[in-house]
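Quick check before the chapter quiz. The format below is the same one you will see on the exam, so make sure you can read both the input and the output lines.
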Amino acid sequence: MKASSPTHKSAETIGVPPSIAEQNEHSTWMMSHPSALSMFDEITRASKGKQVVMFLDYDGTLSPIVDDPDRAFMSDEMRDAVRDVSRYFPTAIVSGRCRNKVYNFVRLAELYYAGSHGMDIKVPAKGPSFKKANGKAVLFQPASKFFPMIDKLYRTLLEATKSTPGAKVENNKFCVSVHFRCVDEKRWRALADLVKSVMKEYPKLRLTAGRKVLEIRPIIKWDKGRAMEFLLESLGFADCKDVFPVYIGDDLTDEDAFKVLRNRGQGFGILVSKIPKETSASYSLQEPSEVMEFLQRLVVWKRLTLKSCTTV
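Here is the expected output.
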């Protein structure tokens, strides 16, 4: 839990500069995963002549990580940036959240949404102009048979965690999240043991750790990477050589998508993180404000590209 959930600095360490070893580690990591902002020209050159398709995680990517997951609101400026990007590129939100919940946060009907770590996908019936002729409108839920089991587990955990101050259980339709961001670190282990104990009755579900959250999902061959491939297929880009997917995310579950992009040899993954992490992403951004700047630069670049084409 600690490995995937670094704690905040204590009052004694706030303002203390990182050690030389930490600086060296960060510099080495940045050489392998340079800033997508500083390498922006390289990224756009690689996408020349191809259809860029954007995939965006929500928490920690479009919105800041907050203590109360129900208040993880994105800013109006970020919403404008995402809306502008979607005008030029097919854009999907791929989140661990329930699809309806993440839609209520984003509130952009023109996007594609994959909730519950990609197990609840909705592609709009009225496709945009860049949707290929063989694209299709879909509502795809590969874990639908697990819904009653997930709902039962949610209710059980809701009751079981009442004795743990700060713990919050979230029902994301096809997965359950147990947030421990507001739980005393000394009680993390006990909470994890409690969740594992409850899960002994659910052998068809698996437990993974994220950023101060325990995620419980069905054991099926489906993840954010497969969701991304499904969306590309739904858009009509399944076997295209002229597609350029860009996936931006901050969580361990986003690694499945980063790995797919590396294996495809198409597009890039961008990890949102201030600290070095083992990742299959090619580039990095430090926080949501940098994600917004990257999206805004993409829009400016595309507008300039279109303008130059019309003046030739």
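If your answer matched, good. Confidence is low (pLDDT under 50) at residues 8-14.
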